Every structure is written in structure tokens, then in C-alpha cells.
Amino acid sequence: MTSNFYFRQETNLIEALSVGATMVIKLIAYVVVNFKAFISILAFLDDVLGYLGSKVNFPELSFRLVCSYVFMPLAAMIGVDWADSRVVGALIGKKDLSAILATYLLCGFGSIPALGVNLGALTSDARPPLRLRASHRARDGQRKHRLIHNRLRRSVIYDWVQNILWKWKYNVKGYFPLPILGTLPFQLSNPTPDGERSRINRFGKIYGGSLGMINIINVCDIDILKKILVKDHADFQNRFTLPGVYEPPPSDATLLALKDSEWKRVRSILTPSFSAAKLKMMTTNINHVSEILARGLLENARSRSTIDPKDIYGCFTMDVIARTAFGIETNSYKNPDDPFIAHGKRVFSSPVFNPVIILMMIFPRLGPFLTRLLKYSMFFPTNSLEFFIDVSKQIIEQRKTDITTGRVDLLQLMLNSEHDVHKSLSVNEIVSQSFIVFVAGYETTATLLTYASYVLATNPDVQNTLQEEIDRHIPRDCKEIIYEKVMELPYLDQFIHETLRMYPPVTA
């Protein structure tokens, strides 16, 4: 890459001073004019928002309020705790909170009018100082940046207007949607059950909102919920997903991503795989891993060492899923460096805060565009996803060539469905379902077992009652616990359900 610089040459000191003074006077004039222009624009926007707020019973709506919420994710992205992000956003959007802060920001370059001065004054006299022969990669990068910028600019205005029109057209009660963030800040400000009750008392049992720029309706009426979930389930069978999130494989063919007839077809094939008869066949694999867990806990008890139940149950869950879903024998407790274990842990160590996901929530129409442009996996590391895809495909090829393995796992049960032409899964669908079982089962099961241990440790009477029931139905000299015996333990079933009620691993 070569650069040619062009400078204006002054012939003497007087000419240089004259040119410099002229540029300074021009810059000062631009500063004054642009500052007044931006102040006028902000005052106009503030009046417009105040008028709209008065029409929808939200008189607090103002440009400064919008700024306080708009800058919340920006504050979080630079490392501020989410609990304090709203305060930081308010500091940026509102200049009257502190006289010192206001003086500094308004006189410096921290305020929005000052940004207008920069844009107006500095860019107006801008001349290209150099001519570059950019490479193809640089031009591609510039083209991508322009595409993203244009899409963002159009999406912000279009989606916000659509949110407002949707609210007025259908007479939807709820908070007035803010630009970019929608009603998300109002809901995050009080996400507790008490906050939900206050919203129900204010707007009724059916009220609307927007997740970023996605319109949603919250239904809290039990009779309507019964109709949606039972009677009219055929009309509400699709799961809500952000556009583009599930496009990268193996997420694209999971039950979470499939819609309508495709979801129904795959679900009808998978349902028999989780029947009581099939679960009985997998009991041996689960018992083998349970013995490893029991030996590890016994060793820790004898040595009186401190343990982290979440880590131990995480190893147990990882081994169970590896055997029952993929047919792979692992020992996470003794061999944590196994590639399957290492990539599995990487999948679940991904950061929860994902700027791309937040961007797609705010601009939902950009989801497919961002996914294809960035080739970005939304939730998990790309190399770990590729590892699971390759391993699954290798196992599938081995099973197809060697039909006498006698394996009983989810992967084999899905392969057996290929014998029925009308009820067969493609290789991509098989890989996707195996992966989603791994993702859905690991964290939830390990968390449940951890809380179950905590409840037993803090409630000795419950522990004694449960132990007595197990001793009555399963003798201590029993070599293998069978499926039927476990189903004869009603108190154990009640204990698990109560633990899930008190400490749910996931929330809807």
C-alpha cells in the first residue's frame, strides 16, 4: 500500500499567519452555528417526545430520558455493572445532575451538541490528505461497514415507527416504546414478581411491550393461557426466536429452530426415543456413570476434603450425556483434558453478555444479515461447534458401516428411524438433535442435583424420609438399580419436583 501526501505550501510568514487566522475564524463561526443548530434540534425533539408522551399517558417522556436508557447498554459494554448502567446512562443523557459534570461536558466535547460541532466544523473543511491504493480486503471491509451503517440507520427509524403504529392500531396497553430499546428498560428496572404484579395492576392481565424492536404481548389471564397452550396449540406451536440466531449449524435444525410442519415431523420421530421402554434400555449407561460418581463422593468423604458439588455433578452430567446421546465413553472426573470434555466445558463457559445478541434484539430485522455477514455463532465458540459436528458425523458413519454395535443411545435410535422412509432424519438433523440434548441437559441437570444436595443437607428430616423410602424399595445389596424400581419412589419424585419449584434451573 502506497501513500502520496499533498500539503498547501505558503510562501512567507505573513501568508501563513493570514491563512491560519482565516481558518480559525471559519472554525469559530462553524462552532457557533452548529452549536445553535444542534441545541435547536434537541429542543425540537424534546418537544415532540413530550407531546407524544402526553398522548399516551406518559408525560415523563423526554429526550434526556431516552438518552439515559439508550446509553445503558453502552455503559454495560465498557464494563459497568448492569445495576449501575442506568445511572451511568443518566449521567450521559442528563447534564443537570452535577454542576461540575455539567460544566465539563457542556464546555468540552462530552455533550451531544459538542458532537454536532465536531461533525459540522471539522468535516466541512475536510480535504483528503492522502491518496491510497487500498487492497481488496480493505475495500471489502469498507463495503461491509457501509452496509451495516445503512441497515442500522434505516432499521432504527422504521422499527420504532412500526412499534408505535402497532401499539395505536391494536390499542395495546403498556409502556410507550423508546427508540432502539423499546420497553426493555422499564421491564428490566423491576423484573421481579412484584414488578410483574405492578404492571398487571397498571395495564391489566394482557399488555404489550417490545423486546428491543420486537413487539410482544404478555398474557397473564389463566383462561386465555389454557386456550393458547391446549385448545389452540396448533396455532401457537412455534417458539419465539430472534431472526438469524439459529441459522448456523448445528442450531439450524434443532427443535428450537424448526417451524410448523418441519417441527411436527422431527418431534414425532424423536418422541418415541424418550419413551419408558427406550429409557429402560439406557439405564445401564446411567448406572455405570453413577457408580463413578458414588466412588468419587466416597473418596472425598473419607478424606474429609472440601468439594464443589456443581463441578462434581457437572462431570457426572457430562459423562451421562456423552454416553446416552453420543455413545462416547468419557470420565470427566479422572480425565478432564479429554477433547470432548474440554470442548463441552468451552461451550458452557461462553459469556452470557453477547453484544451481537443485544444488537439483534434491538434491530431484529438485521439478524439474518448479521449472521451471514459475520459468519458468527451466536452462543457458542465456533471451533467447539465444529468439533461436535465432526465427532457426530464420524460416529454416524461408523454406525452405518458397523450395524452390529448393539449400542443403545439417542444417536442410534435416531439412526434406526432411517428404515422408515416417511420418518427419517437427515444427518444434519441427527447432529442437531444430539447437540441440543447436550446443551439443554448439561447445565440444567447439574444445577438441579446441586440444589437437591443443598436441600438434603439443610433438611435432615427430608433426607431421612427419602433414605427410608429408598431402603424399602431398593436393598443395599442390589447390584443394579432398574428403571421400574426408581418409578416406585413417590417421595423421591415429590422431592425432585419441589426442588425444581424452589430453585428452577431456567426461567421461562
Automatic annotation (TrEMBL):
Q: Which organism encodes this protein?
A: Dreissena polymorpha
What's the protein here called? Concentrative nucleoside transporter C-terminal domain-containing protein
Q: Which InterPro entries match?
A: CNT_C_dom (IPR011657), Cyt_P450 (IPR001128), Cyt_P450_E_grp-I (IPR002401), Cyt_P450_sf (IPR036396), Cytochrome_P450_3A (IPR050705)
Q: Does the keyword Metal-binding apply?
A: yes
Any stretches that span the bilayer, and where are they?
61-80, 100-123
Alphabetical UniProt keywords: Heme, Iron, Membrane, Metal-binding, Monooxygenase, Oxidoreductase, Transmembrane, Transmembrane helix
Domain called Concentrative nucleoside transporter C-terminal: residue spans: 9-95
As one GO molecular function, the record gives: steroid hydroxylase activity
Reading the lineage from the top rank, the first entry is Eukaryota
Under the heading Pfam families, the entry gives: Nucleos_tra2_C, p450
Q: Which family does it belong to?
A: Belongs to the cytochrome P450 family.
